[in-house]
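Key idea: predict the complex, not the pieces.
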Amino acid sequence: MNVLEYYAKHLGAVFPSLLRGAVLTIQVTALSEMFGIIIGMFAGLGKLSKNKIIKGFCGAYVDLIRGTPLLVQVFLIYFGLPNLVLQITGNRFPIDPFVAAVWACSINSGAYVAEIFRSGIQSIEKGQMEAARSLGMNKIQAMRYIILPQAFRRIIPPLGNEFIALMKDTSILSAIGLEELVRKGQLYTSSTFASFPVYTGVMLIYLVMTMTVSRFVTYMERRLKVIDRS
Amino acid sequence: MIVVKNLYKDFGNLKVLKGVNTFIKEQEVVVVIGPSGSGKSTFLRCLNLLEEPTSGEIIIDGVNLLDKNTDINKVRQGLGMVFQRFNLFPHMTALENISIAPMKVKGLSREEAEKIARDLLAKVDLRDKEDYLPDQLSGGQQQRVAIARALAMQPKIMLFDEPTSALDPEMVGEVLAVMKNLAKEGMTMVVVTHEMGFAKEVGDRVLFMDEGVIVEEGSPEELFNNPKHPRTKSFLSKIL
Ligand SMILES: Nc1ncnc2c1ncn2[C@@H]1O[C@H](COP(=O)(O)OP(=O)(O)OP(=O)(O)O)[C@@H](O)[C@H]1O
Ligand SMILES: [Mg+2]
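Result:
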């Protein structure tokens, strides 16, 4: 059997399984990014708060998450949390890998998104807030109707980058046995040792997914620009 | 209607307002002039608490602005502000710029708010521009939308901070025309401007500020034709 045949055979055999893994990768990424945006919006606003406690808390969260590896955060939730609960309550507390993964990635992504929101909000000219307040809007109204809608447009590109980064980072979830794209590949190679076909296949699927996202972001950016101008 | 007593404002170590005292009557048009950095904008921004005074008193319609219990959002509804750089909301059309505050702050329905907005657009002579975004309007048009936006909250007092300074010369007139109309309708106005023609034509009183205090005040004729204070004289000689 020559190399090409070997390659085609294994790639063909593993591909359906890889695609199922890719679906899980997309699910984890999309859910985590969605929660991450919600967490990040509040944490980003919190970092801009005048209230020292809120500001300090949000700042500490962002520093903690950005200053430690995602893998360790995942382990802490998947292994550490059940351990802690067991020590405190005496009860077993198993966590589903998918749930742990979404938790960890949401909290992780939230910290990066917080910084994106913070700088997006700060990039809006001071006069916008002043104009809103001078009309009698309170801070929350001014944020909601005036500042955030403008900030959202500016943060779409960095949010897209964050989404792509997170998608790639979910590969480490293979370490807790979540059968996402990389784990599917590992499972196949462990019985066949066909690493080269498998990991080129894995790579290709990641590439297609990240390119699709970045195309979509470019499209959104353009569309918002059109809205801005038309 | 507005009473200002001993108003001080520091920015850190920089003392910008050093005891401003004045009184502005209902329907009066007060023009504030003075050299750059003398504190004109700061004074105006203190009147609606965009800057928080360091000490002193501001009383508007009997309400003490610096009282902790004063609802500042409520006070601001009664004070329209027009900025040098317009500060229109770029993601909203002219109509939305004007109707957003009546809807969200006063709780009017969209129909009511848009009716007010359309009437005001007509008033500033921009009837056909309601669906335009700020980007698509000239500077003069943007500033007129900004005036309409402030008027939409039906304020009793309008504050203008150099409303024509960022405009190309050919657009100054259209904005001043809107302001003159407002003055004729009896709006109480405080206007920081370098437009001496405007001051002479519609100003009831001119305040000359320098180094954080009101150095001299009087009717436009008195102040422009017969300034008493040497600093007023030297300032006027530079700009007239
Ligand atoms: N937010 C701020 N922080 C620090 N210093 C400030 C701030 N705002 C104004 N100043 C300073 O206060 C002084 C007075 O400023 P202000 O804008 O009131 O002057 P102005 O009379 O309006 O001048 P211009 O004609 O140039 O607009 C200036 O020295 C300015 O640098
Ligand atoms: Mg100024």
